[in-house]
Amino acid sequence: MAVIFPACYCVSIAGGFPLFLASTSLLAALAFSLAYSSPALSHAQAGIAAGIAAFGFSAGILTTLILETVPPQLRNSAMAYSIVLTSGLAGVIGPKLVGQLSDRYTLGVAMYVAPVAYASAGAVWLVLALWLARSQSGTTTA
């Protein structure tokens, strides 16, 4: 229940959707980083569960965002592209990238691909949230 209220607050302000998505991505990056650096198995498991949950909070919003912004006749294609980009692309590129990094460095270093990807996504969403809030407030830069 505590997660719903921040989500409602974020959505109600200018740039709210991207702000919420940025926060969940950054929380996932933090949780996975802590999990991968923890020497205790129970802490690593809790961190991984927290990272999955943090990212999972945004999945419903992304689906809703696609369904509410795409014209009805294009929704099937839009959802198919979304699934291919989020699951298919990550499933094809991710293992190869982690394997190459593991061969070049170590598996411990290679595992940080996920937190870096989540942090990068969070940064992009944060920039979009700031841009959207600024454009909705009517301020422009010359």
Draw up the topology in text:
Elements: H1 4-12, H2 16-37, H3 41-69, H4 75-104, H5 107-110, H6 113-137
Please explain how this structure is put together.
There is one protein chain. The chain has a domain of 93 residues. It is built from 6 helices and no strands. It starts with a helix and ends in a 5-residue tail after the last helix. 18% of the residues are buried.
Distance between the amino and carboxyl termini: 43 Å
Low-confidence stretches: 1-5
Which structural class matches the secondary elements? mainly alpha
Q: What is the number of E strands?
A: 0
What's this entry about, in short?
This protein is mostly helical and 142 residues long.
